[in-house]
Write a structure and sequence with these properties.
The complex is a heterotrimer. Chain A contains 24 helices and 19 strands. By secondary structure, chain A is an alpha/beta fold. In chain A, a hairpin with a 5-residue loop joins β11 and β12. In chain A, α8 packs across α15. Chain B is 42% helix and 11% strand. In chain B, strands 2-1-3-4 form a 4-stranded mixed beta sheet, with helices on one face. The N and C termini of chain B lie far apart (37 Å). The chains are: A alpha/beta, B alpha+beta, C alpha+beta.
Chain lengths: 616, 158, 226
């Protein structure tokens, strides 16, 4: 690719690519992000390529391999453009038929998505409730773009916002526009992005300023950022160059967790291509703006998502947070002014410049403008990524888009905000989701993880899980965080093991309060949230564990017993599955489980086809 | 692997973690020798280098097996039964999470979220993802590994 | 000069002073464990927390690290602070009951019980030893390793360090092994009575698995001879 040396060069390239496009040719779009690949998308791509070749369909049908589209439950899925036909759960056997149908401009009727509530097929993606109820400003871009091709990005209006920015005489225009949009940090803290950039721009001129993209996405259960990094890496790069123009930054860093190898691969390729084209580096497009981006890998530490720990990690040290003040804006990487923003925040920047701040601000609520991507996972029928306007209710997300519970058990609660957040019970699903509304309920919106829990989820177990996570991820410096999380976990282990006392419950609450109050960084300050919120709404479950030594959800191993009921047909499937040889029984007669040997692994329950294994 | 620019990491000492990652990728772990040599090369104290090597979970100071089996213990996977999967893996392989089998073939590790939450429980074997795994699936995968097939074909158990 | 208010009294301190320094200047007592004059402040033990700000924005910060700010309102013994200190001391007693320093602090703050499962650890990870080794001895022979539950202090690879100068400063500054309770039922002994002035490693047979980075040092040799 020839390097672009001026704004006109970029305009010329845009025109060239626009002329080349053939939007009428049927294109089969295959989401092959990490979960697409994990569910077999690579094989589908291979089979489809084969089908196009063997039937000489080049020119009549094309493939586009992209990042996540969001309906992960249905992957590997494909979308046929331009008509918009959606095919769920494609298999290597059905893939070829879909290609052929697409080339003819038809649909393979028997392979279409079937709406579970009506039993009827729905052909077009934008009519499927999961999609139609979202506002997919960011996610829909993933469908159009081949993440490994900068040309694909430019074809789809990529870098046009950058052109707009570079055409303006006054760099401050960028900051004002972002302020006017009302964009707030999508990592969870919700600080006004425009204000942060203004503060950075106002720092005394010195030897450099840093812009950082926090792609550490450590919250378990959250993968919104991953889908953007894999599916549209240039949106981040463009956002950062725009930010550099507005704030006078000289150096950008994308800190990406190493558990995302595909994101790393796509980012690396995107940065290289941007450099090659001259959109990163010295004197970008002849405007005098010099800015480049380094990729730094995380190495497996949740605490490095905290901004001062992230800075330490970038500096090659242990990721221990430090006290603020001084704030990173004043003293960040190497003591230089640094602004750190989340992936989704960066991805919104080209959108804001492209649509204009007023249009962006119209979506969402007064205090929380724009859309937010949530990862809807757990015991929910339609697991995936959903992008919705701020202010939408939890109920609409979980039932309207999510399709309700995945199994027979009813939904009990949703956990939001990761380990810093809390559980919101079903009675409060009428709450709108934005930066401020959930805090009164004892949780936070956080970075967007939404983990749905049903009647078969034990809330004591959930609290214990989070404490286990936090005591491992705590950097360990503050005594209250290190010992506090350990002791909280210890108490929760006692409770879930049937050894808890009511005094311990009081102690748990007291300790939680002190950990929250005294710890220096956000990890410790929010560590007690999962405990406090489950205690607030599900105290009865705790009491049941303590007073009656019973786990209502039948999860806590020490409090449950596996047994076989009358449904047993004597097929011996469980006998073979049991790793401890704890099941005995003759063929055709009801089997029994020896409680002394049973380790409650659940293998028998998985193996049984007659629902004969009960857990009480 | 990681392109460094003029003004960036070279000024901020940031290359230590990248260096350790490269060594780990080559040798499979960080040996005492390697860490001492890194300290010499970078001028950082051995205490600092050792501290960084032990702080971050993706580094291992013990040699790893030829095959790395990684189970996800993120919240979504947990709620879908991941602990049971980890237990089954521990049983089938005969080691606890974080350990390597005595024949040096398999290392079992857990990770706190791989970001493929819609498909949990997930395990990754040598970079290949297996989704919606249940106990039978685990037995299947481990059996195939023991049988020595380098290319473990993906088992979609849903 | 920076003007702030501590417990209702106005005080002026030099720029760069911490809240702890300002409070000490005024004579307001604040307990500390991981702080020592002459070493940098670390903020690990959290005992020195004070309350700053007002209303819903009031919060606790470690006074040893927080810089004095113009107009700041500080309370060194509000109920929130006292509650925090007591719980921290309970946690400390629950892990390190044999440290006289901790016992004395607990007694001074009216903490006479601890409700957690009793542990007997030797280290509270206050980091004084690390800092004295790095800042005063310029040796940097010991440091922190790992994180969370696994966090510990030691020499790299747990072998004798080439940088260690066998000065013993690490043991001298350690609040847990500096003075050790030798009462025969340490779990029940929370008093300020007994004094142990000799290095604990010389007490016969009592502390077999004691933490020591100097491996070996003079004290071990003395012990072997007697």
């Amino acid at each position: 690719m020839k390097r672009l040396n001026s704004l006109d060069d970029l305009r010329a390239l845009q025109a060239e690519l626009a002329a080349r496009g053939e939007p009428e040719v049927p294109t089969i779009v295959i989401p092959a992000g990490t979960c697409g690949q994990a569910s077999g998308a690579d094989e589908i791509v291979r089979v489809m390529r084969q089908a196009i070749e063997s039937d000489s369909l080049e020119g009549k049908a094309r493939l586009r391999v992209t990042g996540c589209h969001g309906f992960c439950q249905m992957e590997p899925s494909v979308l046929v453009e331009p008509e918009g036909t959606f095919y769920p759960r494609v298999t290597p056997e059905t893939a070829a038929r879909i290609v052929k149908a697409a080339a003819r401009g038809e649909a393979a009727e028997d392979l279409l998505f079937v709406d579970p509530s009506t039993g009827l097929p729905i052909r077009y993606q934008n009519e499927i409730p999961f999609f139609s109820r979202q506002v997919r400003s960011i996610l829909s871009r993933n469908e159009k773009i081949d993440p490994l091709s900068i040309e694909s990005y430019i074809e789809n209006d990529g870098y046009a916002p950058l052109l707009t920015v570079l055409e303006k005489k006054n760099p401050r225009w960028v900051v004002d526009e972002v302020k006017a949009s009302g964009l707030r940090g999508r990592g969870g803290a919700g600080f006004s992005t425009g204000l942060k950039w203004e503060m950075l721009a106002d720092q005394p001129n010195g030897t450099g300023r840093f812009l950082v993209c926090n792609a550490d996405e450590g919250d378990p259960g959250a993968y919104m950022d991953r889908s953007v990094l894999e599916g549209n890496p240039h949106s981040i790069i463009e956002g950062m160059v725009i930010g550099a123009r507005g704030t006078g930054s000289t150096q950008g860093i994308i800190y990406v967790r190493n558990e995302y190898p595909l994101a790393i691969k796509h980012l690396t390729s995107a940065v290289e291509q941007a450099r090659e084209l001259g959109l990163l580096g010295e004197n970008i497009l002849g405007t005098g703006l010099s800015f480049d981006i380094d990729l730094v890998h995380g190495a497996g530490a949740f605490v490095c998502g905290e901004e001062t720990a992230l800075i330490r990690s970038i500096e090659g040290k242990m990721g221990e947070p430090r006290q603020r003040p001084p704030f990173p804006i004043q003293k960040g990487i190497g003591g230089k002014p640094t602004a750190i923003n989340n992936v989704e925040t960066w991805a919104n920047i080209p959108l804001i410049i492209g649509k204009g701040a007023p249009d962006f601000e119209k979506v969402g609520t007064k205090g929380s403008s724009g859309t937010k991507i949530f990862s809807l996972v757990g015991k929910i029928r339609n697991t995936g990524l959903v992008e919705v306007p701020m202010g939408i209710t939890i109920e609409e997300i979980i039932y309207g888009i999510g399709g309700g519970p995945s199994g027979d058990a009813g939904i009990k609660a949703v956990q939001t905000g990761g380990p810093s957040g809390g559980c919101i019970p079903v009675e409060r699903f009428d709450l709108p989701v934005d930066y401020d509304s959930l805090s009164e309920a004892g949780s936070i919106m956080g970075s967007g993880g939404m983990i749905v829990m049903d009647e078969k989820t034990c809330m004591v177990d959930v609290a214990k899980y989070f404490m286990n996570f936090l005591k491992d991820e705590s950097c360990g410096k503050c005594y209250t965080c290190r010992k506090g999380t350990q002791r909280m976990h210890e108490i929760l282990e006692d409770i879930s093991g049937g050894k808890g006392t009511l005094e311990q419950l009081d102690l748990l609450e007291e300790l939680s309060g002190v950990v929250k109050d005294t710890t220096m960084c956000g990890l410790g300050q929010t560590a007690p949230n999962p405990v406090l919120s489950t205690l607030r709404y599900f105290r009865d479950e705790y009491l049941e564990h303590i007073e009656n030594r019973r786990c209502p959800a039948a999860v806590c191993k020490d409090l449950i017993v596996y047994s076989i009921n009358d449904n047993c047909t004597g097929c011996r499937a469980c006998v073979k599955a049991c790793p401890q040889d704890a099941i005995t029984g003759e063929k055709k007669s009801r089997h029994t489980i020896d409680g002394a040997k049973c380790i409650k692994c659940g293998a028998c329950r998985s193996a049984c086809r007659f629902e004969a294994v009960e857990v009480v | 692997m990681i392109q460094k620019t003029k003004h960036g990491l070279s000024q901020t000492n940031g290359s230590l973690i990248a260096m350790l990652e490269e060594i780990q990728a080559e040798d499979g772990y960080l040996s005492e020798e390697a860490l001492r040599s890194v300290a010499e090369r970078t001028g950082r104290s051995l205490v600092d280098v050792y501290g960084v090597a032990t702080f971050y979970r993706s580094f291992s100071l013990k040699p790893r097996g030829r095959h790395l089996i990684c189970a996800c213990l993120g919240t979504a996977c947990h709620v879908r039964g991941a602990p049971g999967i980890v237990e089954e893996l521990e049983r089938c392989l005969g080691v606890k999470a974080g350990e390597t089998t005595s024949d040096g073939e398999f290392t079992l590790e857990t990770v706190n979220c791989l970001g493929a939450c819609a498909l949990g429980p997930i395990i990754v074997v040598d970079g290949r993802y297996f989704s919606n795994v249940d106990q039978a699936g685990v037995k299947d995968i481990v059996a195939k590994l023991h049988a020595g097939s380098e290319q473990v074909k993906e088992t979609l158990v849903s | 000069m920076i003007n702030l208010t501590i417990n209702g009294s106005n005080v002026s301190v030099e720029e760069g002073s911490t809240l702890l320094e300002a409070a000490n200047f005024m004579g307001f007592p604040i307990p500390t464990l991981c702080h020592m004059d002459g070493l940098s402040s670390y903020g690990a033990c959290r005992l020195c927390v004070v309350e700053i700000g007002e209303g819903t924005r009031a919060r606790l910060v470690s006074s040893c690290t927080y810089p004095a700010e113009e107009g700041l309102k500080v309370r060194t013994a509000s109920s929130r602070v006292v509650r925090a200190r007591k719980m921290i001391l309970e946690l400390l007693l629950a892990s390190c009951p044999q440290s006289k320093t901790i016992q004395d602090l607990a007694a001074a703050h009216g903490v006479r019980q601890q409700r957690f499962r009793q542990e007997h650890e030797d280290c509270i990870l206050c980091g004084l030893c690390v800092r004295v080794c790095e800042e005063q001895m310029m040796a940097k022979a010991i440091g922190f390793r790992s994180r969370g539950e696994e966090r510990s202090i030691g020499t790299p690879f747990d072998v004798r360090s080439d940088e260690c100068r066998l000065c013993g400063a690490c043991m001298y500054v350690c609040p847990t092994c500096r003075l050790r309770c030798t009462y025969n039922e340490p779990d029940n002994a929370i008093c300020g009575g007994c004094e142990n002035l000799s290095p604990p490693c010389l007490a016969e047979g009592k502390f077999e698995d004691m933490m020591c980075y100097m491996d070996p040092c003079v004290a071990c040799e003395i012990r072997e001879d007697t």
